[in-house]
Amino acid sequence: MSGADGVFTRSFRVITALVLIVWLVLPLIPLGIWSFAKGWFFPDLLPRVWTLDAWEYALSDTAGVMDSLGLTIYISVCATALSILVGVPAGRALGMYRFRGKAAVELAILAPTIVPGIAVALGIHSVFIWLGLANTVNGVILVHLIPTIPYMTLVMAGVFANHDPAFEQQARSLGATPLKTFWYVTLPAILPGIVVGGLFAFLVSWSQYILTLLIGGGRVVTLPLLLFNFATSGRNDIAGAIGMIYILPGVIILCLTARHLSGRSSAVGGYGRL
Amino acid sequence: MSDRTKIILLLLPALSVIGLLFFGGLAIGLMRSFNYMPVIGLTEPNLAAYVAIFSDREFYLSFALTFHIAFTSTVISCVLAVGAALLLRRAFIGRVIINFLFQLNLTVPHLVGAIGILYLFSQSGSFARLAAEWELIARPAEFPALVYDPYAIGIILQYVWKEVPFIGVIILANMQTIGEDYESVARSLGASKWQSFRHVLLPLIAPGLSSASVIVFAFTFGAYEIPALLGANYPAALPVLAYRSYTDVDLASRPEAMAIAILIALLSAAMLCAYIRLSRRGMGR
After folding, report:
1. Residue A49: enclosing H or E segment and its boundaries?
2. The domain B47-284: what is its CATH number?
3. pLDDT of res. B99
4. CA dist., res. A78 & res. B89, Å (int)
5. Is B209 left (phi over 0), alpha (psi -120 to 50) or beta?
6. Distance (Å, rounded) from C-alpha B32 to C-alpha B30?
7. What is the reported pTM?
8. A225 touches B at CB < 8 Å
9. In terms of C-beta density within 10 A (0-12 exposed, 13-18 middle, 19 or more buried), how is residue A219 classed?
10. Where is this protein localized, as stated in its record (chain B) (predicted)?
11. ipTM over cut 0.85
12. Domain spans of chain B?
């Protein structure tokens, strides 16, 4: 069929592809340039002075960007670990069993992926104030579970739907304890799914803004909060550097998992929330 | 252990966390929006917060703006994403690059995209500088307002930038599963390219397209940081309005914030129902 395409069709295709490529990278370019610029004023198309000042500032011990990076990694790692602990069993129940009320359970787990964070975070905040969890790192980790657990559960339900329980039964009939069966039979089979789901759950937590802002009350300053503050206070150079640091985990995770990322995998659904 | 007990034990941790945090948060928000909170002595629920919101002109402007943002972004993203998926279906130079960029773009948080759009389209941004270079404008103020503007153009540009790859990746996978046989049959029976797209391919990808657009609509309706960064001060998008009332020095406006949050939740619940119905229909095919 493609042999029948005329010159017009082919050149149209190439031009659209070029426009698409430029458009996809375009917003990241000024961000990158700003991080190396000093006093880049209108109407200069490119900065007159190139420096590493913004990077030095961002990477220095005193500016707090590195502390914020560490804190953000800590929060996302904790939220991911907890959502794996909770999401793997739930995924097993949804992926391997049919039971009464399954549709309702699925609905309850799907709901947080559609309902925006701000709609629930205000109510949670007033409870967290009584519990002493407002303005704390632990409170922020807890509230990050709202988007990460459903995500992890849905990914694991997909993994378990293709999981054959016969191997587990054989291990049990040969005398393995349930724990041993899980460790030596189930876990190796589902581990790739856990890793991919966990990496994306990490990204989901990594990109949270309003949940952190509300529950952390401005005291728990993760990277996106810092980035927002620098961008709105006109420090474009530092915002540029932080922005580059902030997208790095996503790029790394993309390189690690590119082959898992077809639109067919349930992992992609979670990207709607990043 | 019976299967029933096993299922309950497996689901218990996830359901309790979601039940407590998500549904608990919603319930508390709902109670506070009715000024009802026995623990702090508010024992008589009333509709004061809702009356206050619905008699405030800013709320209607804000709602209209938020709906415009979500609707326009979703429609534009869907159209462009289907076009991009049609393009990426064929092998050609650049396909690998676009595929990679689509996935890269999926991992970039919305906030970073929003700052990028700000640096590109603001009145002293890259495009304004290009316009000055070509002597189309002399001062930044002469460049059309594309961010902080009443039509939310900057916000929509950002959402389109992020959501075209999201919908595109889903639709492309959809198209690859369907294959091109149906269209070939239509073409061999004399259908034009447009007819085979409109009457054969489009109905086949419709379920995937509609469930993806529900996710996009709900997200763009409820997101905070993008309108907070790129939006005009007045009227502000609903999530921004809710956050502002919640953090107002006047604590009396907190129930109003809760009421706005509940309205956002209601709308997304409607979206959720639509999503379920659409994905059921997709599976039943």
Report:
1. strand A49-50
2. 1.10.3720.10
3. 85
4. 40
5. alpha
6. 6
7. 0.92
8. no
9. exposed
10. Cell inner membrane; Cell membrane
11. yes
12. 1-46, 47-284
Indicate the CATH number for domain A61-273. 1.10.3720.10
Domain boundaries, chain A: 2-50, 61-273
Give B 163-192 residues with CB within 8 A of chain A.
165-166, 169-174, 177, 180, 184, 187
In the block, residue with structure tokens 């389109």: B160
Amino acid at A39: G
**Interchain contact B34–A (C-beta under 8 A):** no
Average predicted confidence (pLDDT) for chain A: 89
Residue B259: closest C-alpha in chain A: A119
Q: Which residues, in sequence order, are CB contacts of B176 under 8 Å at separation 6+? A: B89
Q: Residue A41 and residue B124: Cα distance in Å, rounded?
A: 8
A47 and A240 Cβ atoms separated by less than 8 Å = no
- Do A200 and A260 contact (CB within 8 A), yes or no? no
Check whether A259 has a pLDDT greater than 90: no
Reading phi first (left if > 0) and then psi (alpha if -120 to 50, else beta), residue A221 is in: beta
Pairing between β-strand A37-38 and β-strand A49-50 as defined by DSSP bridges: antiparallel
* 3 state SS of A50: strand
Rounded Cα gap, residues B104 and B87, in angstroms = 18
Helix (H/G/I), strand (E/B), else coil: B148: coil
Determine the Cα angle at B136 with ends B135 and B137, to 5°.
90
Using the CB atoms, write b or e for A3-15: b if 16+ within 10 Å. Answer: eeeeeeeeeebee
Note the pLDDT tens digit of each residue in B205-229: 998 898 899 999 999 999 999 999 9
Helix, strand, or coil (residue B176): helix
Q: Which residues of B touch A118 (CB under 8 A)?
A: 222, 224, 239, 242-243, 261, 264
Summarised one tens digit per residue, pLDDT across range A39-98 is: 888 888 899 889 999 999 999 988 899 999 999 999 999 999 999 999 999 999 999 999
Contact B164, B213 (CB under 8 A): no
Average pLDDT of the residues in A198-213: 95
Amino acid symbol at B48: A
User: How far is the alpha carbon of B76 from chain A, nearest alpha carbon, in Å?
Assistant: 14
